[in-house]
Amino acid sequence: MTGTGNIVARQPFPQAAKVRLADPQLRSNLRRATHTIRDKRLRVVGELPDWEALRVSGAAIKDDVLARLPDLLDQFEAAATAAGATVHWARDAEEACAVVTRLVRQTGTDEVVKIKSMATQEIGLNEALEAAGIAAVETDLAELIVQLADDQPSHILVPAIHYNRRQIRDIFAERMPGVDVSALTDEPAALAEAARRHLRAKFLSARVAISGANFAIAETGTLVVVESEGNGRMCLTLPETLISVVGIEKLLPTFGDLEVFLQLLPRSSTGERMNPYTSMWTGVSDGDGPQQMHIVLVDNGRTETRADPVGRQALRCIRCSACLNVCPVYERVGGHAYGSVYPGPIGAILSPQMTGPDAGANRTLPYASTLCGACFEACPVRIDIPEVLVHLRQRGVDAHRGRPSAERTAMGAMSWVMRDRRRYAAALRAARRGAAPLRLGGRRDHVRHLPWPLSGWTGTRDAPLPAAQTFREWWAGRGRG
């Protein structure tokens, strides 16, 4: 784990994607799952005549948050503190993990239960707690599967999307303590029951719970978590101490703003009209729920992202994963190829910005896209992901402008040739003569492999052969009999 946590890719995307493309079972699992969620979403979104108006409202509210973020953070801290919570501030992942580890140690426990949280994954909290001798038990079913498999999540909403039922049954049989293997099948009900029995004792004995938050209301100091299983509700009500790790962009100005997002989020994420469990809590209440409430507000590159007038729209993200479910690239390579806890189109623009321009392999993520635009059409808060991808690509080019490169040299040579009509015509004639041997033995209009340095092109695409006749030649000869 680095100072920014688990959002730095350790391998360039093209290399990682090549490995995943060779796994047909992975592609089958991804296609089945993403298409199921995508179809459910389309049905429930189609029920709302004002869906586009809701998207516009959601984008406007989040843009207002980004414009007034420092003031809203101060307002949230004051309201949460007045309600009995203790607010902590963390500049990066390392500092956030240190704060949470210290708070857990103060309780004297060596085990915590966790609600599914992208923020805690981002900062690498589980690894930090383990290094401190504290066991973190994931209670979300998909997160539990990934944890038992000693794996990493590959989807924002469905972390175990890369597994099928048979694979999950095998993981439970091999890794889940106390499971009755003789009664365990790969039926969803049987798998859920096994997880329920495993987690029940954890819920009843836990003294500390750790959560994230889908939204934080500046006006009231309220935190909001939406979920589908009820495990979050158990974590939020039973333990004595609750620690919530919240990205600073999760704010909404007023409680009334929540109405918009409780329509946008469930439809975009799970294809439901509303989440089965929507939990809200404000500070502490005597004799009801946790009696110690801590909120850790995490920056971790968000301030730098906010400073970019084009890229800052990535901070509108409400972690619904709709962009992943429609992305043709994600569907074929899965989340692990992105090397970050934020995979897919949103990860391709969010991770590089949060880690900065010198973040190693993250520089390749803006190229992990066909720019088809499906992600923008699906995004409930209208993040123009293709626009940001092109912007980040341009920023990468500008950062290396002036340095010698084969591509820049080739483009300069082409510019020189194409600035003069006679040079251009001569180049076309030479290209046709060079392509003539390649056409022998049948009609061919492209070549799959060229020698270096042109192999840089044909390594990922075919090279078209020059036309047998140019337009100028056709035009000049069309009047002849």
From TrEMBL:
Residues 73-298 form the LUD domain. InterPro entries: 4Fe4S_Fe-S-bd, 4Fe4S_Fe_S_CS, FTHF_cligase-like_sf, Helical_ferredxn, LUD_dom, LutB/LldF, LutB_C, NagB/RpiA_transferase-like. One of its GO terms (biological process) is lactate metabolic process. Residues 314-383 form the 4Fe-4S ferredoxin-type domain. Gene3D superfamilies: Alpha-helical ferredoxin, NagB/RpiA/CoA transferase-like. Residues 401-479 form the Lactate utilization protein B C-terminal domain. Keywords: 4Fe-4S, Electron transport, Iron, Iron-sulfur, Metal-binding, Repeat, Transport. Pfam families: Fer4_8, LUD_dom, LutB_C. GO terms for molecular function: 4 iron, 4 sulfur cluster binding; metal ion binding. PANTHER family: LACTATE UTILIZATION PROTEIN B. This is L-lactate dehydrogenase complex protein LldF. It comes from Micromonospora pisi. The lineage of its organism: Bacteria, Bacillati, Actinomycetota, Actinomycetes, Micromonosporales.
